[in-house]
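Students often ask why we bother encoding 3D structure as a string. The short answer is that it lets us treat folding as translation between two languages. Here is a chain of 316 residues written in the first language.
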Amino acid sequence: MRQNRRVTAPLRLLFAGSPRAAVPTLEALAGGPHTIDAVITRPPTPQGRKRILTPTPVEVSAVERGLPVLHARSLTPLQDELIEREADLGVIVAFGGLVREPLLSAPRLGWINLHFSLLPAYRGAAPVQHALIAGETTTGLSVFHLTEGLDEGDLYAQRPHPIGAHDTAGSLLDRLAIEGASVVADVVDRLAAGTIEATPQEGQPTFAPKLDRADGRLRFTESASTISARLRGTTPEPGAFGELDDGTVVKVLDATIGHDGAPLAPGALALDGRRALVGTADRPLELVTVQPAGKQAMSALDWMRGLRDRETRRFA
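And here it is in the second language, the structure alphabet:
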């Protein structure tokens, strides 16, 4: 986080966000010279086997800092209350949903949004996941002025970020969230000082809609690199899985590309020393950790050793 931030006219802020990826930005703003008038986050939801009502990570952080919290699944039901607060600026990180007029124009400086791609690439709810699935080696983050269109607003700041060979959506998003917090804090400071202007997005937009369970299905008729990219892009959510020829679903929690070993037919299973391999269109994929249906996560080696008729079984 940036230290010793000083501005001539501190702003009154609204902050909207829910997941862990939004927490670093909230913390950066709460630790700065500006005032957070309200934190808007989704209501608590039942979690775990006991379905315990659990607040969002953003709410937990806000309560720890003594910030006022408002619950909403969209900003529309809170429109009148938020307008009455007469904030200077709204900040959104991973809240979901579009902001409509008149709330969009209610803060004096409007709203800014932290988005985890280099806009206009990967507009939408799942930019990190789609970038990984597409096999990108670089992504980034953008802070832009919110408009009614989907991630279409003018840009205040962008920063590229490399994608590691073993990054998952979870690990990459964690890094982008931390890096993005300092970028947002800088943009807010410069808006307060009147020393920043937004510039239009340039280039052809691409889109990154929210993923569902079907997006996590691994197809072993594809290349190992394509399968690995989908696995990393859907980890931890919605989760990658394969389906055996008898219909049994096996979640694939971790796997690597096998760079040696005998070729295997797509979907075929084989033990190679202490490696659990599955065939693809080219090189084998080494399964590291799996979770068979109805069981706990386990070593893929142990799972394959215990599999009946392993020599004739295959992923569909």
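Translate back mentally: Residues 12-193 form a domain with the Rossmann fold fold (CATH 3.40.50.170). Keep this in mind for the problem set.
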